[in-house]
Amino acid sequence: LPLKIDIIKHPNEIDGKSTAVHAKLLAPDDVTIYKYPCIPEYEEKRHEIALIFPGPNSVSVKDIAFHLQKYTKKGFCSSDDDCSREPVLKQAKIEPEAEKNPNECISSSRSEGTGLKKIIFIDSTWNQTNKIITDERLQGLLQIELKTRKTCFWRHQKGKPDTYLSTIEAIYYFLVDYHQEILKESYKGQYDNLLFFFSFMYTLIKDAKCCAGKE
Which compartments does it reside in (predicted)? Predict the structure, then answer.
């Protein structure tokens, strides 16, 4: 995957009903699952991390670069309006290295445009998210909302809009948008395998409902 993924899982979220484990099984080197209240310290790296969660302050994927730039400035300024110190990039010149690993160059160029290195997802029912999203360790992080995607999850919660996605759907759609909007590359199914188990379960349940005459 082009970015590392942290998933904060609600302790009452049943493993058998959670789609977060799909991501861990299919991309084990890039996905880490934490069971709340266990949350890593993000404060020092908030300029390179985003939280995927709908809310009044959430921005779209295409605006990540602009907003993370502001977070970077805030991280080195005593206040939002006044910076007494020079920007970090101007303080020292980095000497060019003699040789670079080609793979490192590709990796660095992928995140060069935004500075984004990690994304965080919350895995819980929508009614349980409040306790996690209000945790002080997640405050101050840039929030991203996937406003144009609709869920296909078979346990859609009543009273919630169909743009509220299951965890694996949110991961998949974010990566597709990131690939197109930020990396500026055409999408050719690179992340489709993340939906392998989701697609299998969707088909299984749909067929079962059809056989039972419910659809």
Answer: Nucleus
Per DSSP bridges, beta strands 142-144 and 118-123 are: unpaired
Handedness of CA 59, 65, 67, 71 (dihedral sign): positive
Residue at 19: amino acid letter:
T
Asked if residue 6 lies in contact with residue 24, where contact means CB atoms within 8 angstroms, the answer is no
Residue by residue, DSSP assigns 134-154 as T-GGGTT-EEE--TT-----T
Q: What is the pLDDT of residues 34-88, one digit of tens each?
A: 999 999 999 889 899 999 998 888 999 999 988 888 876 555 443 444 433 333 3
| Spatial contact of 186 and 180, defined as CB atoms under 8 Å apart | yes
Q: What are the structural domain ranges in the chain?
A: 4-72+115-212
Residues 6+ apart with CB under 8 A from 167: 7, 18, 19, 20, 23, 121, 122, 123
